[in-house]
Amino acid sequence: LNVTNDLAVGLRIPFHAAEEIKIIHGRMDVNTITDEEMLDVAAFGEEGHRPIARKLMAEIIHARIEEILQLILAEIKRTGYEKMLPAGVVLCGGTAELPGLRAIARDVFQMPVRIGMPSAMEGFVDRVSSPAFATAIGLLLWGFENGSVAENGITRSKRENPSPLAGVLGWAKRAFLPG
Fold first, then answer.
1. Pseudo-torsion of CA 69, 74, 78, 81, nearest 10°?
2. pLDDT over 70 for what percent of the chain?
3. 40, 143, 149, 171: which could form a disulfide with 49 (CB 3.0–4.6 Å)?
4. Residue 147 belongs to domain spanning
């Protein structure tokens, strides 16, 4: 399930051009786009650019995202957590920044939806203050609260039964954060 691949195939454009238009022009609010709105996109197998209907791009993105959200909802229901999310769902990742995602997610999940943002952290540049990094930063913070690094550099959990995640978090601490 890949939005960029769907754009490349559906619009018949190179993968790199599909990724670029998804990041720069991607949106899912199909009803706010007129049929006349066009984008200039690198042509596949040709030199130069060709016009692409912005509405078609949004329809392709909308269809794939809705399918992904339906799969997530099915998994939430399968695990029995559907009635255990009173605060709703938090969406993270680069796709969470696409305009229109929250509205579609609210329609699919029928519960509150918000976009996850990393907490303000000293020393981090603005580039990591986006939903694209929310999960990674959240895991690092969780690791600081729940794990410790032994003198020999091996991560040990503060809990009696450390999880496999503890080792990964320790590695991330050593690799990315000042010691």
1. 40
2. 65
3. 40
4. 126-176
